[in-house]
Structure formats: C-alpha cells, structure tokens
Task: inverse folding
C-alpha cells in the first residue's frame, strides 16, 4: 500500500514584504536553490536571516513549520510572518496550540507537535 497523503500543501500567499534583498542574501538563496533547496544558510547576527527565510518560504510556496529556540523568538517570527504574508499564522507551544499551514513553534514544543500530528502535519521544515 502506498501513502497518498501529501506531505505539504500550497500556501498560495501573496508576499507583502516589498523590500529587496541585499546581494549577499540573493547569493545565499541562489546557493540554497542550487543545493536542491536543502541545507542551511549561515549568516552573521544582523544579516537578515529571518528575511532570507521568509523569502525562501515564499519561493517554495508550501506549508511550513518554523522552529524558534525561545518563546520570545517565536513571537518575533509570528509577527514577521503575519506582516510578510498578511495571513493567519499558527502557533504551537505550551500556551497555545493552533496548527495552520504556516506555523511557528519552539524547539521544546516541536517534538510534541510532530508526535501529535505525525505525517498529517503536511509541512516542510525550515
């Protein structure tokens, strides 16, 4: 028997972020594209890693789970995603558990999220 459940779904979001990426951000995204959209993009503090990740989410146009190390960063990611895509964004951590095609969680809660939703999560991970 073959699993026919899709592992992701199209986001079909319109990017609201109109700022143009810097040359080094364009180069980082191009290298990521060349690597089959796999791997890590490593940039120094203040270089716009969140901005680059939002650009990547827009490029793949797929459901996505963003995993942040702290609740403070979870809230920052949430705000950035809402502003970038003008859409409802899910949040999954101790105080809130709402899973949507675009969801932010913490490292600590990511295991619970995957454990609870398993293959039904239908997302890519960034």
Result:
């Amino acid at each position: 028997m073959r699993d026919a459940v899709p592992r992701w779904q199209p986001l079909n979001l319109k990017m609201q972020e109109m700022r143009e990426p810097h040359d080094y951000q364009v180069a980082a995204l191009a290298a990521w594209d060349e690597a089959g959209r796999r791997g890590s993009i490593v940039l120094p503090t203040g270089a716009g890693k969140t901005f680059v990740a939002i650009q990547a989410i827009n490029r793949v146009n797929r459901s996505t789970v963003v995993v942040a190390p702290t609740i403070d960063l979870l809230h920052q990611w949430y705000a950035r995603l809402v502003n970038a895509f003008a859409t409802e964004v899910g949040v999954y951590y101790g105080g809130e558990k709402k899973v949507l095609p675009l969801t932010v969680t913490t490292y600590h809660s990511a295991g619970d999220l995957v454990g609870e939703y398993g293959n039904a999560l239908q997302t890519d991970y960034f």
